[in-house]
Amino acid sequence: MTRPARPARPARTTVLALAAATFAAHLSACTVDGWGTPAAYPDATDLRRAAAAWTDPWLAPTEATTAGPTSGPDGLVRTVASRTTGHGPGAEALVVEVREAVTAGWTLHAVDCAAGTAYLVHGDPEDLDDLRVATVEVTGGGALVTGSVPHHRDGSWPDPGPPLDPADTCRGGGAGDGPPDLGGAAFDGDVARGSADPEQPRWDDDVADATRERVAAVAADPWVATLPELAVPDAGDDDWRRDAPATGGRLDAAGPDGAARLAKAVDDALATGDGWEVTYARCVPGDPGAPAAATLRRAEPLAVATLSAAGGDGEAVGGVDVALRLLPQGWEAGEGYADDVAALPALAAADVAACAGGSSPVVAGTPAVLPVQVWPSLG
Fold it and tell me: Which residues lie in Low complexity bias regions (predicted)?
């Protein structure tokens, strides 16, 4: 299969915001003749590629899923990770996110400073197993970051063009090239990859009781009991996927900046909860505009929690947001990944304490992330 040629590019990104929207639309529902919903069903390749995005120290999503089918008989979705991060008033959210992404190994390929959007790449676009891409969109309260990976039936990925030096973009007055052209051949797929008509997987009928037992065990945790009710989602009529049990809310935590409030919320969770450990932390102590985040994990039953503190004055912003998730019983295809999450090393107490009393930025550990939806098998 030949790779699509890179189209001619504009000299500046005056249309990046529109193109980024087009990019997202193509990611959400790209259609190719012969790709029915069964063929689009996620397999082990999709899980492996998504997991690389979930555990990325910059992406560190609060919402996660795999590439797979969406509405329509041939629709595909490739967005697998997202987070909305609150940056404090006056913070240059786009500049900060791009800088942190580049530090984590990403390359910047397009930016529109006026619209507050950027397009970044991690890995080689020729190696679909190694590739993940991200968009950053500045919002009223910070930045929306989304990460995407190729679907297992994609045969190619659009050429992102040459990387840009962040110093030549917003603060340096440059704009860079536009994003890649997402024409009909951009995701030219090889329909011979995988079965074109796999058997539709189904959940076993006897997993519901086991899931309820798992949820009850986590809900009984003293820290989890302080959150809104954790319940088993209604399976509905969609027998090929399940929503993961989840809850969330806002924790009371005072402090002069996001880092201090995060450290307080983490300390409370570790002191109150049963068996929770910190696997990941990111903060900038002493910077009132900087957001902060951490992931907690308990191994049995496996559950994870993401704690996010927005940048800004503690009294104005208030508290720390928490999103907690666990897995329904019966996700046999994801057992290997679940084991990896359970085995993530815990951070040293000093790493977390540095968010409250340190003087240097902290990025430590690996995010503990579980998907919002799971499937009975991944082939």
Answer: 178-189
AA letter at 95: V
Closest CA to 105 of 152, 68, 52, 149: 52
Residue tagged 């930016």 (tokens): 111
What's CA 341's distance to the chain center, in Å? 15
* Tokens of residue 269, six digits: 């969770």
Task: State the CB neighbour count (10 A cutoff) for residue 373.
Answer: 16
pTM for the complete prediction?
0.85
Q: Is residue 48 within 8 Å of residue 66, measured between CB atoms?
A: no
DSSP per-residue letters across 23-63: HHHHHH----TT--HHHHS--HHHHHHHHHHHT-TTT--SE
* HSE-CB for 378 with a 13 A CA cutoff: 25
The pLDDT tens digits of the residues spanning 99-157 come to 999 999 999 988 887 788 889 999 998 899 999 999 999 988 789 999 999 988 888 88
Q: What's the pLDDT at 204? A: 65
Q: Does 62 have pLDDT greater than 90?
A: yes
Give me the residue spans of the domains in the chain.
16-168, 207-374
Q: Name the phi and psi angles at 139, rounded to 5.
A: -115, 175
DSSP state of 346: P
284, exposed or middle or buried, with CB in 10 Å at 0-12, 13-18, 19+?
Answer: buried
Residue recorded with tokens 């090889």: 190
User: What is the C-alpha separation between 40 and 131, in angstroms, rounded?
Assistant: 19
Q: At what angle do helices 335-342 and 44-54 cross, to 10 degrees?
A: 20
Q: Is beta strand 320-326 parallel, antiparallel or unpaired with respect to 302-309? A: antiparallel
Helix orientation angle between 258-272 and 349-357, rounded to the nearest 10 degrees: 140
pLDDT beyond 70 at 191: no
As a whole number of angstroms, the distance between CA 375 and CA 328 comes to 10
For 157-170, the pLDDT digits (tens) are 888 888 888 876 67
Cis before 301? omega within 30: yes
